[in-house]
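$ run holo --ligand "uridine-5'-diphosphate" --emit tokens
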Amino acid sequence: MKRLVVVSNRVADLSRSAQAGGLAVGLADSLRQRGGVWMGWDGQTLKYDDQPEPRIRKIGTVTQATIPLTEQDYAEYYLGFSNSVLWPLFHYRLDLVEYKSVFLDGYRRVNAKFADALTSVLQPDDIIWVHDYHLIPLAAELRQRGCNQRIGFFLHIPFPPPEIIAAVPRHRWLVESLLEFDVIGFQTNTDLGNLQHYVEDHLGCRMEQDGRIRIGKREVIAGCFPIGIDVDAFVEMAEKPNEEVAIETQRRDILGRKQIIGVDRLDYTKGLPDRLRAFARLLELYPEMRKTVALMQIATPTREEVEAYVEIRKELEALSGAINGRFADFNWTPVRYIHGTVPREALAALFRASQVGFVTPLRDGMNLVAKEYIAAQSMEDPGVLVLSKFAGAAEELREALIVNPYDVDDMARNLCRALTMPLEERRERQAALMKRIRKHDARHWLESFMAALERGETQHAA
Ligand SMILES: O=P(O)(O)OC[C@H]1O[C@H](O[C@H]2O[C@H](CO)[C@@H](O)[C@H](O)[C@H]2O)[C@H](O)[C@@H](O)[C@@H]1O
Ligand SMILES: O=c1ccn([C@@H]2O[C@H](COP(=O)(O)OP(=O)(O)O)[C@@H](O)[C@H]2O)c(=O)[nH]1
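-- output --
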């Protein structure tokens, strides 16, 4: 088996269990199983950086190769082009795109830096797998340095329709850079279809039924590879007794109360304000629900230097305060809002102890929290997943209660349906959903992508 070299903006700290972000979780789960090299930014910013060689560290089966970024790189490449241009653009939020040409310069510079660092660790037989929107030009940079190994790319976030992509300057360069990879993977068929429309409308190419695109003399394979989780590992975590969660759950049981849980990075794509409004609407529409249910929302800090993230935090804190001010009683707090990072073990126990998983992004590549919530449920008394139709996960998890995250009344009605759903129906839905997350788990994601990258297999091959 060839050595796998994975490259992503950030590498996860494999010695810790709290990882804010699905990319880190999904890759860590997959890479631990196969072993290999993981290269990326070490999370540090320096004034100047004169050390081109990556720092090497071995953790179990994985060798980590990390590089620092300069303060200028961080501002222009990470906060700038990646998170103030591509992130809002790819999540259909043209109103939040802040394009500056220095951001694009920084983006190109850091991709060249990644290519230099990577060249120093590559061996001729390596197979390279690049992750996410931060590194779209990396294949072209590597080719310029004489790298002729096969290079794959996986986009963890949505790929929007051509009318949206076309709103950003240099969009043609961006998509042509993407097409320098040998294999391009998306989370959903919708994303794949959007690439097809772009190449047909703007580049005059055709995408075949099996995802092959011919560009000049080269052939690129595009496909849908939904990311999954290590289901058994998560089930095990959820079944492990957690004293703090158990005490809290006993108290709720005595009082006959239920819990709705939401866990997200504090990102404007996650639909958090409307989620809180939907919970308040539940209490308005169904007064009998008051004092019988609470919403626990864990909101993990992320990208706090970007203005849009400062705004969303303020909005959320004001909203949770207002809902509690309006509905709380001396012995009942309707919203428990936690601004912090919680270890995955604790999350697993919290998911199991919650009767509803409330996952309502306005747009999301996949959303691993949705899959983790399913994995954490017991078959005896499972909870219900209420899931946005705009999460990538909704293409697969059809037995969840699927909602429109822009429609507060629809979410409130479905919350009520979830909280009152008969046990038999909950069990049926849970069994079907469990089958689905097992079918497309972390191993399947890795293996199906590798089949395309190593052997040129397509998703719809006859
Ligand atoms: O590293 P940050 O800037 O703090 O952001 C964390 C990660 O967020 C995004 O995750 C995406 O990947 C998940 C797994 O495939 C997917 O389920 C989710 O829908 C996506 O939002 C981002 O794409 C990563 O690059 C970031 O590391
Ligand atoms: O406090 C937290 C918040 C989130 N997560 C994990 O971070 C991932 C979030 O991934 P998801 O795909 O849902 O969204 P993303 O943040 O990548 O957009 C999930 O595995 C969560 O369990 C965590 O470990 N601790």
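-- notes --
The pocket of L263DTV3 (ligand 1) is lined by residues 9-10, 21-23, 26, 132, 156-157, 227, 302-303, 364-368 (CB under 6 Å).
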